[in-house]
Amino acid sequence: MSNAPQKAAETAENTLADIVSHAKEYGFVFPSSEIYDGLAAVYDYGPNGVELKNNLKQLWWRAMTQLNQNVVGIDAAIFMHPLTWKASGHVDGFSDPMIDNLDSKKRYRADVLLEEKAAEYEKNGEKERADALLAEMGRLLTAEDLAGVRQLIIDEKIACPVSKTSNWTEVRQFNLMFSTQIGAVAGDSSLIYLRPETAQGIFVNFLNVQKSARMNIPFGIAQIGKAFRNEIVARQFIFRMREFEQMEMQFFVRPGTEDEWYDKWKETRRRWHEAIGLPAEKLRFHDHDKLAFYAKAAVDIEYEFPFGFKEMEGIHSRTNHDLSQHQQYSRKKQNYFDNDINPETGKPYGNYVPFVVETSVGADRLFLATLCQAFQEETITEGEGEEQKTKTRKFLKLHPAIAPVKAAIFPLVRKDGLPEKATEIFNALRHDFRLVMEEKDAIGKRYTRQDLIGTPFCIAVDHQTLEDNTVTVRHRDSREQTRMPISELRSYIGEAVSFSRIFEKL
Predict the structure, then answer these.
(1) Is 6 assigned a ligand-binding role in the annotation?
(2) Please, how many CA atoms are within 13 Å of residue 248, restricted to the half-sphere of its CB?
(3) Smallest Cα–Cα separation from 29: which of 46, 52, 50?
(4) Is 260 annotated as a binding residue?
(5) Residue 122, annotated ligand binder?
(6) Which is an annotated Pfam family here (predicted)?
(7) Ligand-binding site membership of 175 (annotated)
């Protein structure tokens, strides 16, 4: 029997471990409150991580609100009236099917265990078997047949990764919302929730936005914000966390046009991921096997992480369920009056509750996908003749537009006026780009440090610079060096790091 799947799993685990280690060492992601031994499934973004994440968020925001005249943004509060979550169904139905192993005392999501088994079948070339398993899981979950889900896990001989046994409990539903109290006095306080998603803040503001921004159907409302879920099975680094950030857009459309807009946003969002540097062969669409009762269609854009293809963004055709629910619970109309002429009747379309097409991407998952894709190792040759040697070079191949640092400025030596000249260049460019200036260590070590955080350009200031105002620009990916006047740096770097280089691919 081949041990290829086991070796592939070990390689993937080692790759992820390398990325986690790199993220901490170079200031991208730290375990939260690490000096107190951390808090499971909660992470902090370091100096380089927050820059990369902010660049990704800004890129998404501008792609939504700047490139689309019919998309505007909001920033809704995390706390919302409790009836919001009753209307949305989260109070009664926001649960995951959980199963415990009696030997290891570990708890797992039942659907994740089955999805991982299906992924194993697919890797072994048994796609039909994988599809059949996912279809059966979807049928059982839709029917809320939790006993059937447990039996399916047993029939598939799925064992606990820790105990290696199949001594499973019954499958139970576990609500994922965090609750807290609001009010100054305990007796007068009332139960509220930390929002488990950002979408409802958009829905309850539908009419506020439509009227104040003078929007006509079709139009979208975009939002970036934190959400909170009491994930029992939180693992794979920042892929699944209890506190996370969503970048979401709800697109309101005329009933009957939702299929067209659903297909359009599917392709638009996939192109966006490819434009920022995620290759087409590492992206795929995965249609949902289990649809929410109100959903017309749902698909995930999955990226091939070191631990397999996993969801990064969801596109959903949600019908008019959300607005209708809020209309019912708030007793306030959520209608839109459409003045456009219906060609079939020759009259205005009139009043209706709009349908919604949603795109929702996890900022943290996008960050992780970007980091995984950028993490490169290559063998290079240095020196000539007998002194020639090969070594492994690590670097982050980030698109210059999203790199945390755009350029590093290095005086060749710490004397002869070179640090002063480097400071002059730094001051001339710092209003346009995020820069660093380093004087310590040999210039080769400084290049290596910048490679490891993904800086696209390093600018060397040498004695010739003092004579003719030229510098050497070293390129991260190719390691090639270009001599150019200082006066050209702003336009040269600006051209490479502009969001326009990404937008022109859309």
Answers:
(1) no
(2) 24
(3) 46
(4) no
(5) no
(6) HGTP_anticodon
(7) no
* Options 1.10.3720.10, 3.30.930.10, 2.60.40.10, 1.10.10.10; CATH of 4-80+193-365: 3.30.930.10
* 139 marked as binding residue: no
Residue 242 annotated as binding?
Answer: yes
**Model confidence over 415-428: pLDDT tens digits?**
999 999 999 999 99
The CATH architecture assigned to 398-503 reads: 3-Layer(aba) Sandwich (3.40)
Q: Is 373 annotated as a binding residue?
A: no
240 among annotated binding-site residues? yes
Residue 197 is labelled as binding a ligand: yes
SS3 of residue 411 by DSSP = strand
Burial class (CB in 10 A: 0-12, 13-18, 19+), 389: exposed
281 assigned ligand-binding residue: no
Res. 5: pLDDT tops 60 = no
CB 93 within 8 A of CB 85: no
Average pLDDT over residues 84-110: 86
State yes or no: 438 annotated in a binding site.
Answer: no
Q: Tens of pLDDT along 316-363?
A: 999 999 999 999 999 999 999 999 999 889 999 999 999 999 999 999
- How do the domains of the chain map onto residue ranges? 4-80+193-365, 96-170, 398-503
Q: Is 362 annotated as a binding residue?
A: yes
The answer on whether 248 is annotated among ligand-binding residues is yes
Is domain 96-170 classified as CATH 3.30.40? yes
Amino acid identity, position 123: K
Q: β-strand 43-45 against 29-31: which pairing, if any?
A: antiparallel
